Amino acid sequence: MPSYEPVTAVLRGLEVLRAVNHLRSATVREIHEATGLNQPTVVRMLETLIHAGFVARQPSQPRYMPTGRTLELSAGYELQREVGLAATPVMTRLRRGIGWPSDIGVFDGDAMVVVHTSRGEGGRFLFERRPGFRAPILATSLGLAFLAHCSEEDRRQALERSARLPEPWNDLARQPEALAARLARIRADGYAGMDDAYSARDYGGLASAIGVPVLEGGVAIAALNLMYLRDAIDQEKVVRKLLPVLQEAARELGAALGGLKRPG
Fold this sequence. Notes:
8 strands; IclR family transcriptional regulator; Arc Repressor Mutant, subunit A; alpha+beta; 17% strand; DNA-binding transcription factor activity; Tscrpt_reg_IclR_C; Tscrpt_reg_IclR_N
């Protein structure tokens, strides 16, 4: 459940912005009909959106239209789509080469958003995930590999959000010394593993993963994992035989993704 009740004014503002964006050019009445909000509320929301730079009023008539600034709101989504497209050929080759599937994720607050997966390629994996799945930062190999190599700002944001969440793996966000030791170990080992409690909850303890960062200039811009079934191969063998291949794929992805423009 959310920690707080939704802010009604924000929800109304977003409804109005969505209507203006959809209609391209709209009167107060048209926005009222599209949203169901009363006209005085629509006017207040429009004035707020004009002040914020997301909506403009046509000078010759009382019609409202979206500004170019609304494009900023899709920047994160566009990045995710571009990362997924760029990663596809690398991950397809990786799946064919090692037989186990991978996910690539990008940072989004308290989670890594999966933007591409090879779980459906080369035979179905027992546990499916689709692009858009949010992998918890402190529970997954994707999240931990990213956290150990990301910028200070991304790490601060991730830990602040995770510290407010109740799941047992988020205890690390409230234990600075334990967290520092865990991240140092990940850097020394060259990979992160999935949290056992998370594996038990989401995979019945049957599956696990190792993850590595995708780096640009030594800083994580994404993370790549390798999923496996525990009854088929143990982690020691995965690390010994498959980690070098996963790391090479991550280096290739880093080179491919390094030129993509990130928001901010």
